[in-house]
Amino acid sequence: MNLYSSKIVCVIAGMILSVSVLAADVVVIVNKGNINPVDKALVVQIYTGESKTWPDGGSVFAIDQAEASQIRTDFNTSYLGKNTSNMKALWAQNIFSGNALPPKVVDPDAEVKKMVASNKNAIGYIRASSVDDSVKVVVK
Amino acid sequence: MQDLIKIAGMVLLAFCVHATAFAIESEDLSIHGYGHQSYLHSADNTYLKADSQGTWTDNDLALLFTAKIDDKSKIWMQLYGSSDKIRLDWAFVDYQLSNNLTAKVGQIKTPIGLYNEIRDIRFLQVTSLQPLMYQEGVDIMHEAYNGVAFVYKHGLGNGSLTWDVYGGQEVDFEGSTSVKNRRLTGGRVTYKTPFNGLSFMLSAYSNNHQSITTVGKVITTGEQGAQNFSMFSVDYNNNDWNIKSEYANVDNDLTKKNGKSYYLQAGYTFAEKWTPYVRCDYITTDSNLSSDPSYYQRSNSLGMGYKINSSINMRVENHWNNGYAMPVASEEVNAGTGKTDWNMFAASVNFIF
């Protein structure tokens, strides 16, 4: 492998690694009393308006972070596969079709944790470095 | 020069709206809205009130109010206003019966195809003018009805299926003087595939109505008949590509007419701001007269959209038309008197909040 090819491989590996780091950096949290099984598929359904209830019948209280925040961009990209602009359009379609309302916007991580810890049906996302024992991590 | 001044005016409006536009949300009440301002110019046939002088009057604004009753139910209400009307667009209560099943009761937007529930929300569409089948003149996409709907969603492998079933009485926003009592039943099934952004839809309705003759204040009822409609839709929408195609067929027992329409539309967004797009569109309002330009229209469109921010966008587009079924259907041109090959220019500023 010549020097040019090696550089290309390193750049591609770096890009893959950076995406993986981004995805691992944002974790999804729920209330410690929430015993519902949560996987990435359910997270996608909740944050796209497809699912409004937990398997146990409780109404989901979903929390988003500020529209312009980097963590929201990272969450949309790594979990939902969409950029923030397209997510806004998706939620506008849900709203104006009378199907679903968007998640409540709360930030920063400390406020998200506080809200999730105080609401059994809440779900949110924060940086992995912000996790403490007031909430439960369900997807990372 | 006048066209440039009008377009500059729209850009200025966009920045004024951006300075003030915001959604209002509290724990139990939220307010959202949308609007647009369009400029239309038709070189030969008058359509959508546009002629060779153009028109600046196509604009609207809507406010959507939502109030939470409890964890399982909400009230939704939308008020709509334009330059010539203000009305209650829809207002209903929904109730989450189970994890998968929701019921709605009230005045509800009719779930047909990809665009019907959002056909006035230009911001969410790729183009300034909707596909021909959705335009008001042909009266096949009924906007709303008073009745009941059930929405059932469930997984299907790695995708999902959503079933919409509804029934009631169509809301006659235009105050028809030729039909009444439009009882409507219909359904739509949407399959979201495991392939991100790709979905398919089948929509159908049957609309049983009665013909009337209005002379002054005297209304005479006539025959009853059905309008039967079916449509197949394909949608591919990821971060960059937005590709849509639909095929619709409608049979009207009262008029003994069959109509068909189909389109293919594609837009590609680059630099998260610019979206060039194309659309090939066809409609015939009477299949038996589909070689008569009064009853068919082919429309090829080319345009460019620009996203000012996540709440405001602008578009300019040109439509090359062959046939003038739409101006005839909207009663702006008499059959046999229009120009077969004609162009239409549209520009719009669109926003949501």
Report what the structure shows:
The complex is a heterodimer of chains A (140) and B (353). Chain A has 140 residues and is an alpha/beta fold. Chain A has a single domain, classed as D-Maltodextrin-Binding Protein, domain 2, CATH 3.40.190.10. Chain A contains 5 helices and 5 strands. Chain A has helices spanning 3-25, 40-47, 70-80, 84-96, 109-118, and strands at residues 26-30, 61-64, 104-105, 122-127, 136-139. A 5-stranded mixed beta sheet of chain A has the order 3-2-4-1-5, with helices on both faces. Chain B has a single domain (2-23, 36-60, 94-352), classed as Porin (Beta Barrel), CATH 2.40.160.10. Chain B has helices spanning 2-20, 325-329, and strands at 24-25, 29-42, 55-70, 73-82, 86-96, 101-109, 144-156, 159-170, 179-192, 198-215, 218-237, 241-252, 257-268, 274-284, 296-307, 312-322, 341-352. Mean pLDDT of chain B is 87; it is low at 1-22. Chain B is globular, with a radius of gyration of 21 Å. Chain B has a 16-stranded antiparallel β-barrel. Chain B has 353 residues and is mainly β. Chain B is built from 2 helices and 17 strands. In chain B, strand 11 and strand 12 (241-252) form a beta hairpin. The chains are: A alpha/beta (140), B mainly beta (353).
